[in-house]
């Protein structure tokens, strides 16, 4: 499979860095381009084109970081920011319009995987994408590198 243009939606999750590295390795041989996409999901109580300065600033920063990462690997990069009700349809539409060869989805590691169906955007993209969809699941962390479930939500004393 030759991938010249690869669409990579990013969300600011830990898996993004791994997915970015993988995306670069996929397109590097073809001297291709990684097309980064950040989708702001707009709540239904707002117009889809509502001004959301905080979310836009966060997404733009995320895209700048992604662009810098890809450029540091000497790979071409494009970045786009969209506002939509749901990420899945927005990603499929962008894949069509950008004429990408594949979509790469980064999924965070979870000890108990609920399956693809539990990730509604992922399921939608798999069903409706006009091109191949690759799924990159984040590597399992080394034992002891993640906080336990009991301590993950705990706050240190005095910070309540």
Notes on the protein architecture:
With 160 residues, this protein is of the alpha/beta class. Helix content is 36%, strand content 21%. The chain contains five helices and five strands. It has a five-stranded parallel β-sheet with strand order 3-2-1-4-5, with helices on both faces. Helix 3 (87-97) runs parallel beside helix 4 (120-128). The chain is globular.
Radius of gyration: 17 Å
Count of discrete alpha- or pi-helical segments spanning 4 or more residues: 5
Distance between the termini: 52 Å
Question: In terms of per-residue confidence, which ranges show pLDDT below 50 for 5 or more consecutive residues?
Answer: 144-160
Q: Fraction of residues in helices?
A: 25-40%
Q: What's the average pLDDT?
A: 86
State the total count of DSSP E strands. 5
Q: Order of strands across the widest beta sheet?
A: 3-2-1-4-5
């Amino acid at each position: 499979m030759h991938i010249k243009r690869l669409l990579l939606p990013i969300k600011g999750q830990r898996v993004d860095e791994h997915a970015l590295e993988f995306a670069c390795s996929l397109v590097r041989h073809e001297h291709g381009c990684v097309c980064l996409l950040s989708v702001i999901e707009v709540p239904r109580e707002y117009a889809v084109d509502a001004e959301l300065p905080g979310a836009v600033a966060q997404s733009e920063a995320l895209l700048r970081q992604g662009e810098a990462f890809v450029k540091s690997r000497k790979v071409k990069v494009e970045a786009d920011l969209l506002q939509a009700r749901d990420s899945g349809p927005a990603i499929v539409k962008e894949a069509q319009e950008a004429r990408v060869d594949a979509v790469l989805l980064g999924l965070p590691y979870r000890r108990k995987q609920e399956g693809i169906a539990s990730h509604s955007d992922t399921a939608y993209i798999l069903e409706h994408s006009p091109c191949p969809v690759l799924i990159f699941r984040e590597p399992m962390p080394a034992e002891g590198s993640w906080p336990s479930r009991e301590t993950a939500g705990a706050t240190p004393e005095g910070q309540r």
